């Protein structure tokens, strides 16, 4: 292993956490794999994962879905990743790092070892069921301990402590928070804010004890532990989680003699270089200008600067803003800049307190009242974005700065998007500026969803959602886009409004709709925008055969001929293969049809078979043979339910925990024929290994020991989007109920040709809102959505079988009305044993 | 890109009316394709039928010059800015049914032919061979 390659330098990264991984990504992006052979050591057994969203592990996300990259990312870029292998020493004299498994030479070395939770030196702190909250393994331990516990205590009332308290509450423990300081979140809020925070958190049933110093932990009476405080008061609990701050994991650096900060941390300069120029440090282990940055954003900035340093680039780390916006136990807390006002001599303050609504806001401004130096928010973070813009861009404050924190009838006065300079940061997680947003719009993004997918803005913590929306709206408007939401010149309505009209008035044809509700200036023919959109709405509502005389002129050519037109005017044919399960006889029948009509044959990603090159006039014969063999149409041509991909599940697989094929068949047979604003793809996986790739589908279902986890709004394709976990451990009936409601709600509210992923990005209120509507039935439409779905399901008929029964419909399948000649323009050639367009 | 051929100013003497098909071969508010013989050889036309409209019948090239495929009859019929049009089913350009001009690129034009009903027959006017 200890070979040094003559042509490449060896670069070793210690730590595969968030920042260490980001460094690797930056190095790859800068082509550093050309110059370096890279080895990464990670002490944890998991590939780098999203620690910021660690708590979602308790909500059902697993290590794989929290992972920051695909499992083959490192190998793909020729980077050696050595997990479960901690570095135990650095030998600077020989330029080697040491592990239990060997010694590895380095030319350059990066420390990205992060930090560890500080456990106060209290006698008894090493008892069983005394735990911390930092890694996936910590969470496994907490979950296991919680099974035998009824009460839990978190020591430490800071950001992470409150997050841990929320997790304990979620594990159904009676929870208390014990804080040494006189208030919660002493770093972020002052005493008044802390008092409000306490009230709010106590009202959630979490006990808050401040000014408590634990003296010792011993055996309890009623519970497992007894905590004894400075005044001899006691608290009994089964489980203790320490969250009393973090400390840099700087032991390696200290032992090898690098320059250290007084209170720990590896000293780095603006290039992230330590006192040994061969060694860099990034993330929570690094001390810059006497500060440790305990947030991921600054860590990412260091990683970027380090990647530049290692590749002779010109980018330095110049400190980072520690402003944060959080929702802890459902309570908004925001802190900007010098929130306490104790770092800015001469600063002036404004404060607003509402004890009824439980809101508190504070502004720290410069002595002349012109600049915002800091702000503090408790109870309502809607003020954050605007304040943050004043702060980070140094904008001049309005005449009366207090107006920025006083309640107004319209909520916080928004800083007009046009007032922001191009350089203003909109999304700090992904470092997206207003200029980047404008560029994406200039490059063709025409709605919020597209901008989010293009720039990644608002896809991290999501805190900038409202600001991003206002910038996008403003920019679109100033470019003359989108102001008119009408679907086209024939209807002064959006798709959603047309859907409502059709539903409410029970309109069943396009001609009736355009007659009653169309614009008066047109000839009433409609166009290629509104006709297919209305056809889709009518089908979603009433599910009449699309080839009926009144519907056929509305359809795109693919729907008209119930096949997919290819570039040379021929069609491809895709019969339904529910769940990807097919008998040998049906497979043979498919082969025979393909052979007889000389169709090019290819397996699709949706686990079925695509037959290409069919001429229009052959389609009915081809379909008669397929239907005789037991097939149904696959709707591959429609904006409709496409496929339900599945793995074999518990029937065959050693790992499967549920019958995924059975569920896939059930889902596919229920929703086949459902038309929607865009195509719908589903998948069912039989265990968390997720072989069916359900998390890239509009609706994904993953089996658990106890039932099914439901994921929604994923997408593969050009702009991949992970589906989001929507509900866990559902029984079959509830699963179908939620999918019914979800799909019908999407059909009701989406724009035309809007996939669920983009629809979700544009949905005001996001996933929480969607859950409220579907799971908690907050709009009171749950049953209505279900019955509308049932109507579509009940009216299902294979539309090819329907057309084959009707000679009038079949007349349409002639290439020419006055001649049986085939189209001479269609010329094919042979390649790899099949025919393809010449 | 232009495949337009300039039509001679029509006089009845120059054209002959041929039967293409019958009314029931047509699809209301949509198109069908047919073969014709022209002075330049066989050609494919797309026939559109808009019952109840001022002009009920249109015939334009079936060949889509952008996609180089014979598909125009399978496009969606509509009206844009008050003019009946057909949208190419492949790349969605709009062609005016009246004169074949492409709205997105006016240098491109489909050929057009006069068409009419004679009783149940659909007749097309073709320049004399
Ligand atoms: C519950 C929780 C919630 C959080 N929420 C937020 C938030 O909302 N916003 C925010 O900005 N930040 C948040 N953070 C902080 C954020 O996670 C950290 O800032 C970030 O993870 C720091 O990245 P890092 O790479 O420096 O350290 P880490 O992510 O801790 O990674 C260091 C890695 O190095 C490994 N390692 C250490 N020593 C060795 C060794 N000798 N050999 C090999 N490997 C080693 C460790 O095992 C670890 O995997 C949160 C943290 C937690 C725990």
Automatic annotation (TrEMBL), chain A:
Q: Where does the Nitrite/sulphite reductase 4Fe-4S domain lie?
A: 638-759
Q: Which family does it belong to?
A: Belongs to the nitrite and sulfite reductase 4Fe-4S domain family.
Q: Tell me which residues make up the Nitrite/Sulfite reductase ferredoxin-like domain.
A: 566-627
Q: Which residues form the BFD-like [2Fe-2S]-binding domain?
A: 426-472
Q: Which organism is it from?
A: Litchfieldella qijiaojingensis
Domain called NADH-rubredoxin oxidoreductase C-terminal: residue spans: 323-387
Q: Which UniProt keywords apply?
A: 2Fe-2S, 4Fe-4S, FAD, Flavoprotein, Heme, Iron, Iron-sulfur, Metal-binding, Nitrate assimilation, Oxidoreductase
For the FAD/NAD(P)-binding domain, which residue ranges apply? Answer: 10-297
Q: Which cofactor does it need?
A: [4Fe-4S] cluster; FAD; [2Fe-2S] cluster; siroheme
Its annotated pathway reads: Nitrogen metabolism; nitrate reduction (assimilation)
**The name this protein goes by in its record:** Nitrite reductase large subunit
Q: Which gene encodes it?
A: nirB
Presence of the UniProt keyword Iron in the record: yes
TrEMBL record, chain B:
Q: Which residues form the Rieske-like [2Fe-2S] domain?
A: 16-124
Protein keywords = Nitrate assimilation, Oxidoreductase
What Pfam families does this protein map onto? Rieske_2
Q: Which InterPro entries match?
A: NirD, Rieske-like_NirD, Rieske_2Fe-2S_sf
Instruction: Keyword check for Oxidoreductase, yes or no.
Output: yes
What PROSITE patterns does the annotation carry? NIRD
Tell me yes or no: is Ion transport among this UniProt entry's keywords. Answer: no
Q: Which PANTHER family match?
A: NITRITE REDUCTASE (NADH) SMALL SUBUNIT, PTHR40562
What is the name listed in the Swiss-Prot or TrEMBL entry for this protein?
Nitrite reductase small subunit
Organism (species) = Litchfieldella qijiaojingensis
């Amino acid at each position: 292993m200890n070979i040094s390659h003559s042509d490449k330098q060896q670069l070793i990264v210690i730590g595969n956490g968030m920042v260490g991984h980001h460094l690797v990504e930056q190095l790859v992006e800068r082509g550093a794999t050309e110059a370096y052979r890279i080895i990464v050591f990670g002490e944890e057994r998991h590939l780098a994962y999203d620690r910021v969203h660690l708590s979602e592990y308790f909500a059902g996300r697993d290590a794989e879905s929290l992972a920051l990259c695909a499992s083959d990312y490192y190998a793909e870029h020729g980077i050696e990743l050595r997990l479960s292998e901690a570095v135990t020493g650095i030998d600077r004299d020989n330029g080697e790092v040491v592990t239990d498994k060997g010694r590895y030479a380095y030319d350059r070395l990066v420390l990205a070892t992060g930090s560890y939770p500080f456990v106060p030196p209290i006698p008894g702190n090493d008892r069983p069921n005394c735990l911390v909250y930092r890694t996936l393994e910590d969470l496994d331990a907490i979950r296991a301990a919680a099974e035998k516990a009824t009460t839990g205590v978190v020591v430490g009332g800071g950001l992470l402590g409150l997050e841990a308290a929320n997790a304990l509450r979620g594990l159904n423990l009676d929870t208390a928070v014990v804080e040494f300081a006189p208030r919660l979140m002493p770093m972020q809020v002052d005493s008044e804010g802390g008092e409000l925070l306490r009230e709010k958190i106590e009202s959630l049933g979490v006990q808050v004890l401040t000014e408590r110093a634990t003296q010792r932990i011993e055996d309890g009476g009623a519970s497992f532990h007894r905590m004894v405080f400075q005044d001899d008061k006691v608290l009994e609990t089964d489980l203790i989680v320490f969250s009393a701050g973090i400390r840099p994991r700087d032991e390696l650096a200290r032992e090898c003699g690098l320059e250290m900060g007084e209170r720990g941390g590896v000293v780095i300069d603006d290039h992230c270089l330590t006192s040994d120029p061969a060694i860099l440090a990034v993330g929570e282990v690094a001390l810059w200008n006497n500060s440790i940055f305990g947030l991921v954003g600054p860590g990412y900035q260091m990683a970027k600067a380090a990647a530049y340093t290692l590749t002779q680039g010109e980018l330095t780390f110049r400190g980072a803003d520690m402003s944060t916006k959080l929702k802890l136990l459902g309570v908004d807390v925001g802190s900007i800049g010098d929130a306490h006002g104790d770092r800015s001599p001469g600063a002036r303050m404004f404060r607003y307190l509402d004890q009824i609504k439980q809101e508190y806001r504070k502004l720290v401004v410069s002595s002349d009242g012109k600049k915002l130096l800091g702000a503090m928010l408790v109870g309502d973070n809607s003020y954050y974005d605007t304040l943050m813009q004043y702060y980070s861009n140094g904008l001049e404050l309005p005449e009366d700065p207090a107006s920025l924190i006083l309640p107004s009838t319209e909520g916080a006065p928004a800083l007009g998007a046009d007032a922001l300079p191009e350089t203003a940061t909109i999304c700090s997680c992904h470092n997206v500026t207003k200029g980047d947003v404008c560029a994406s719009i200039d490059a063709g993004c025409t709605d919020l969803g597209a901008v989010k997918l293009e720039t990644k803005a608002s896809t991290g913590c999501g805190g900038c959602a409202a600001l991003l929306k206002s910038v996008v709206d403003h920019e679109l408007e100033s470019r003359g886009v989108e102001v008119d939401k009408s679907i086209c010149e024939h209807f002064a309505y959006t798709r959603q409004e047309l859907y409502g009209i059709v539903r409410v008035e029970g309109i069943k044809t396009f001609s009736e709709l355009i007659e009653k509700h169309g614009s008066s200036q047109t000839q009433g023919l409609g166009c290629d925008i509104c006709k297919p959109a209305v056809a889709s709405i009518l089908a979603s509502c009433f599910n009449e055969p699309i080839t009926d005389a009144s519907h056929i002129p509305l359809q795109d050519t693919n729907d008209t001929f119930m096949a997919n037109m290819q570039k040379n005017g021929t069609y491809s044919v895709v019969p339904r293969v529910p769940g990807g399960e097919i008998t040998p006889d049906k497979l043979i029948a498919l082969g025979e049809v393909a052979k007889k009509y000389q169709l090019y044959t290819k397996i699709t990603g949706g686990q079925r078979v695509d037959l290409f090159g069919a001429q229009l006039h052959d389609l009915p014969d081809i379909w008669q043979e397929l239907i005789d063999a037991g097939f149904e149409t696959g709707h591959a041509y429609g904006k409709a339910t496409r496929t339900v991909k599945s793995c074999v599940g518990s029937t065959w697989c050693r790992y499967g925990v549920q019958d995924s094929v059975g569920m896939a068949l059930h889902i596919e047979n229920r929703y086949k024929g459902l038309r929607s604003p865009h195509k719908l793809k589903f998948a069912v996986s039989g265990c968390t290994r997720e072989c069916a790739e359900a998390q890239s589908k509009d609706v994904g279902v993953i089996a658990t020991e106890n039932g099914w986890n439901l994921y929604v709004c994923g997408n593969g394709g050009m702009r991949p989007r992970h589906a989001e976990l929507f509900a866990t451990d559902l029984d079959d009936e509830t699963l179908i109920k939620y999918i019914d409601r979800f799909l019908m709600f999407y059909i009701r509210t989406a724009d035309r040709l809007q996939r669920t992923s983009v629809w979700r990005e544009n949905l005001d209120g996001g996933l929480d809102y969607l859950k409220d509507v579907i799971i908690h039935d907050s709009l009171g439409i749950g049953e209505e959505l279900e019955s509308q779905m049932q109507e579509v399901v009940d009216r299902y008929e294979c539309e090819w079988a329907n057309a084959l029964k009707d000679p009038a419909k079949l007349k349409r399948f002639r290439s020419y009305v006055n001649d049986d000649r085939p189209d001479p323009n269609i010329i094919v050639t042979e390649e790899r044993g099949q025919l393809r367009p010449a | 890109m232009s495949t337009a051929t300039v039509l001679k100013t029509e006089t009845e003497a120059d054209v002959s009316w041929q039967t293409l098909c019958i009314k029931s071969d047509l699809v209301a508010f949509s198109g069908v394709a047919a073969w014709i013989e022209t002075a330049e050889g066989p050609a494919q036309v797309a026939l559109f039928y808009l019952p109840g409209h001022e002009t009920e019948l249109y015939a334009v090239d079936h060949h889509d010059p952008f996609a180089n495929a014979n598909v125009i009859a399978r496009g969606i019929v509509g009206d844009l800015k008050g003019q009946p049009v057909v949208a190419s089913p492949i790349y969605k350009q709009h062609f005016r049914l009246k004169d074949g001009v492409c709205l997105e690129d006016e240098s491109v034009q489909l050929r057009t032919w006069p068409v009419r009903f004679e009783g149940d027959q659909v007749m097309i006017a073709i320049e004399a061979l």
